[in-house]
Write a structure and sequence with these properties.
By secondary structure, the chain is of the alpha+beta class. It has one domain: Alpha-Beta Plaits, CATH 3.30.70.3000. Helix content is 42%, strand content 20%. A six-stranded antiparallel beta sheet has the order 4-1-3-2-5-6, sandwiched between helices. It is globular. One magnesium ion binds next to loops.
């Protein structure tokens, strides 16, 4: 109620505007998905249906909110990057955060059957989220490089781990074999014991998924006009790219750093 004697309480709300020119990044991550993936019988190490579900939810988030220009995700996490000059919810962290994470969670539940048509969802999923304020494009790129490295190292570890388990080792034995091993040693285990060349595994598993907005030019015929007209249309697309923090990636999508 406006101007009530209780309204002074509003002044106790915490101020959390992310100041311009910081870039706003929201990262969401599934809560206890080790368990969620187990009870829903995800294929290990990578259940493609679950990854496609995450990608589909992230695509819907980008389509819904024009100020999000890019998203990057793997496993049970996604990072959403807002354009630098966004005024979305007056740049208030808690509003933005809660909106994105709750919308994503609703999408995850609503779309479940599309990706798992014969499996009823067990265990209600929830996601947690945080805001990262990147003071410059350089910091944003370092952030993305960090998440992508995390994707790579977790995927490499999990691939080895589940190969060992599927070959008859117990989970404890597999854990002990891999304890303290470096990247190169894990690649050797994969190659020598299982004939798997890590580089040949699907790029979505190794590199994660990047969703971005592009403009496509198209020629359309409008019914009451003689000649077709050219127009550009925003399209959301998913790419699996080796290094999303590299100069060449950002040169290809230079409009992202405007
Ligand atoms: P927390 O609540 O701390 O995030 P968590 O169990 O979700 O706990 P994460 O580090 O986020 O921990 O790990 C995600 C877990 O979900 C991993 O165990 C991973 O194997 C599993 N997972 C996520 N996506 C998939 C998938 N597509 N296929 C198989 N397993 C998956
Ligand atoms: P905002 O995004 O700013 O919160 P809003 O449309 O949700 O926009 P609110 O001030 O939160 O605005 O108002 C909630 C709206 O939802 C009102 O229009 C209210 O009539 C409607 N609403 C909520 N619950 C019910 C209900 N149980 N029955 C009928 N209408 C409802
Ligand atoms: Mg998690
Ligand atoms: Mg995670
Ligand atoms: Mg409301």
């Amino acid at each position: 109620m406006a101007n009530s004697k209780y309204e002074y309480v509003k002044s106790f709300e915490s101020e959390d505007e992310v100041m311009y020119p910081n870039l706003i990044v929201v990262r969401i991550d599934g809560r206890n998905f080790a368990r969620f993936s187990e009870v829903n019988e995800f294929k290990k190490p990578n259940d493609e249906r679950a990854l496609n579900l995450m990608n589909s939810c992230a695509t819907s988030v980008l389509e819904k909110y024009p100020d999000i220009i890019l998203a990057y995700g793997f496993s049970d996490e996604y990072s959403f990057i807002f354009k630098k000059e966004t005024k979305f919810y007056q740049r208030r962290a808690s509003k933005i955060l809660s909106l994105i994470v709750s919308f994503f969670t609703s999408l995850y539940v609503a779309k479940w059957n599309e990706f798992f048509p014969h499996a009823e969802m067990r265990f209600t999923p929830s996601f947690k989220s945080r805001i990262i304020c990147c003071p410059s494009m350089g910091v944003l790129q370092a952030y993305l490089a960090w998440r992508q490295r995390e994707c790579h190292s977790k995927n490499q570890y999990n691939t080895c781990f589940w190969m060992l388990v599927k070959s008859g080792k117990s989970e404890t034995e597999a854990y002990n074999i891999l304890k303290g091993t470096q990247k190169q040693e894990k690649n050797e285990i994969l190659f020598q014991q299982f004939g798997v060349n890590y580089k040949n595994l699907p790029s979505m598993y190794r590199q994660g998924s990047c969703i971005l907005k592009t403009e496509v030019d198209e020629t359309v015929k409008i019914h009451d006009k003689e000649s077709p007209v050219r127009r550009s249309r925003k399209m959301v697309k998913t790419v699996h790219s080796e290094n999303i923090a590299s100069r060449s990636f950002w040169n290809d999508y230079s409009y992202l750093c405007k």
